[in-house]
Design brief:
mainly alpha, 69% helix, globular, 2 strands, two-stranded antiparallel ribbon, 25 helices
Length: 625
């Protein structure tokens, strides 16, 4: 039999088929085991190297463009990646602090919410939804579900919540805080109970998890309505008592009712507060402002919550004698200028370096995201810029959103722009006429009454920016861990959980520093609860519906669950013990719980201690079973 006849009759086996699909299935980080001169060709062929790309193909740059030839060059390149990662963190902070936090206050006030309800709804949804959608669109991944969710919830609730308490001590909303923590404990224990039975979630169990979260939201909403009705009843009772004969008992009852009303009024609605930066600017003596940060524990009442005069800021520059387009182009260029010239002149070399680092970020954000900030003169209105953003913001959001949501993992993102730009072009059919109408109708020196509608574009643009910057940080750290050959499950439970909670950390801390501590802490609990209940259940349903396997636990999963229960139980304990005064000491305590979790995780990885997970039972080969 000749070789031709043999080849024609040969039936490929599983190993042959595996070699044919080798570059579609192999991990990109196998490249570290190849000689340096072979790495570029491997990176170009391996599909997983494109999978480990968000905006920039770092691995391709490392081994093809930068052409690393030894370990030292790898370390130099990874140092550059760390610097770029810090730039992404700066990007995230700027977006949240300048563009994202102001409209959250505005929309919370427009919806007549109090701080706690705004925290567990708008702020929690905004922080959690991008990561949830990312997980749902990447349901093919075989990464463990429960350990990642538990560790991320632990990071957000303990570390982020603790940092809020440390940076800005405050008086908690007693009933709402205990209710949230108890719901959180209920959700965590229910999820563990369902998993412990058969190591899976059925449809019925998923609906039970959804109903727990739905009940949680309904209770929060109803509680606010009942509180407002109680306030109205208290006012009526006080008015009745004031018409009665004056007696000590009557006066005592009125004082008790007023005290109760004051307690409710503190959480009645969201006010637009003047931030610490604004107070320092207005103060002649910056040192006398008590809102400045100190490392020692201070009382929650040492700074004044000063409300902003919204209408005065809106009509700050009204002048009917000026034309509608007075200073149109000058105002436009001032709005997109990334560096304040007055600040630049009076600052030193280090602050100027910081201004240079943030300049490209500020320029891109100023062009893309409209500002709606009731603390600013004219609420941040810039007529020409806002009219351009009516067209640019939806077009860019639709184009780039389609690229990242529906692209194949084996395809570089910018190759799909040629197919998705049409969606942005379609939006111009609606947005261009709207922009023209707004330009004709509005004035430069006062924002229109519908300026609040720009919060929709603001929040959508900010969420895109926040998600992409956090995703880029996650990709960079994942690449560094892969090159350094750190185990993937260890990276997921530690660095992965931190990057997933990074947007929560920055957003909640910024809101706390702006004077909304209750909203920030409520979001830390509410976002963790949302991730654990909704994200897990939805992901499990989709994976089972599409036939993909579900990896639930690793050796770190039970470890994360145990520390989560410990942290929540201890939070309830110290809240009651300290009369719901969130002090800096308890902030350190909460962060120490998360640090202890990381220590246990490292010790488990190094095999110094055993995890809380059960060991597999190995049957005796000769037992006859």
């Amino acid at each position: 039999m000749n070789s031709t006849a043999f080849n024609e009759s040969y039936d490929p086996n599983g190993m042959d088929l595996e070699f044919e699909s080798f570059f579609e299935q192999v991990s990109c980080f196998i490249v570290t085991q190849l000689p340096y001169d072979k790495r570029c060709s491997f990176v170009k062929k391996a599909a997983n190297c494109n999978d480990n790309t968000n905006f920039v193909a770092y691995i391709k740059i490392m081994f093809c463009d930068y052409n690393c030839k030894n370990k030292f060059q790898e370390l130099v390149f990874m140092s550059i990646l760390v610097l770029f990662c810090l730039e992404m963190v700066l990007w995230l902070g700027i977006v949240v602090n300048i563009f994202y936090s102001p409209p959250l206050k505005v929309i919370s006030q427009l919806c007549h919410m109090n701080e706690h309800l705004a925290g567990v709804t708008f702020l929690a949804f905004g922080n959690s939804t991008p990561n949830m959608l990312s997980d749902l669109f990447e349901y093919e991944d075989e990464a463990p579900v429960i350990p990642g969710v538990m560790s991320a919830s632990l990071f957000i609730s303990m570390f982020t919540g603790g940092l809020i308490c440390y940076l800005r001590p405050f008086k908690m909303n007693q009933h709402a805080t205990v209710r949230d923590l108890l719901f959180f404990l209920l959700g965590a224990t229910t999820l563990d109970f369902f998993m412990s039975n058969d190591n899976m979630l059925t449809k019925t169990e998923c609906w039970i998890m959804f109903s727990i979260y739905g009940t949680y939201l309904i209770v929060n909403i109803v509680d606010v309505q009942l509180m407002r009705k109680a306030m109205k009843r208290i006012i009526i009772e006080i008015e009745v008592l004031e018409h009665e004969m004056e007696t000590p008992a009557r006066q005592k009852k009125i004082m008790a009712l007023r005290k109760k009303y004051k307690y409710f009024a503190e959480d009645e609605r969201v006010d637009i507060l003047q931030t610490a930066a604004g107070r320092l600017i207005e103060s002649n003596d910056a040192q006398s402002d008590s809102s400045k940060f100190t490392f020692t524990t201070t009382r929650a009442t040492t700074y004044r919550r000063q409300s902003v005069n919204v209408e005065a800021n809106r009509t700050h520059a009204v002048d009917p004698t000026k034309s509608k387009n007075h200073r149109l182009f000058r105002e436009f260029f001032e709005s997109i200028n990334p560096i304040d010239c007055h600040k630049w002149r009076r600052e030193g070399i280090f602050i100027r370096t910081f201004y240079i680092a943030q300049a490209p970020i500020m320029f891109i954000c100023a062009l893309y995201i409209p500002v709606v900030d009731y603390e600013r003169p004219k609420h941040g209105w810039s007529k020409l810029l806002n009219c351009l953003q009516i067209v640019l913001n939806p077009a860019l959001t639709l184009t780039v959103g389609q690229v990242f949501i529906f692209r194949k993992k084996t395809t570089i993102w910018y190759k799909r722009v040629l197919y998705t730009y049409k969606y942005g072009a379609y939006s111009c059919v609606i947005t261009v006429p709207v922009a023209i109408i707004v330009f004709i109708q509005s004035r430069t020196n006062v924002p229109p009454y519908y300026h609040w509608v720009f919060t929709i574009m603001n929040i959508s643009g900010c969420l895109c920016m926040i998600y992409q910057s956090a995703a880029e940080i996650a990709v960079i750290l994942d690449i560094i861990g892969g090159i350094l050959e750190v185990p993937s499950d260890f990276m997921a439970i530690t660095v992965g959980s931190m990057t997933n909670g990074l947007s929560d950390l920055v957003t909640n801390v910024v809101m706390a520093l702006h004077g909304y501590e209750k909203m920030a802490y409520a979001a830390a609990i509410g976002s963790s609860f949302f991730n654990m209940i909704i994200s897990t259940s939805l992901l499990y349903v989709i994976k089972n519906y599409t036939g993909y396997s579900v990896t639930l636990f690793t050796k770190y999963g039970i470890n994360a669950y145990t520390f989560l229960l410990l942290g929540l139980a201890m939070t309830v304990f110290w809240a009651y013990m300290l009369n719901f005064q969130a002090r800096r000491s308890v902030g350190i305590f909460c962060m120490a719980i998360y640090a202890m979790f990381l220590l246990f995780t490292v010790l488990i990885e190094k095999s110094f201690i055993h995890s809380y997970s059960k060991d597999p039972i190995i049957d005796d080969t000769y037992s006859g079973k």
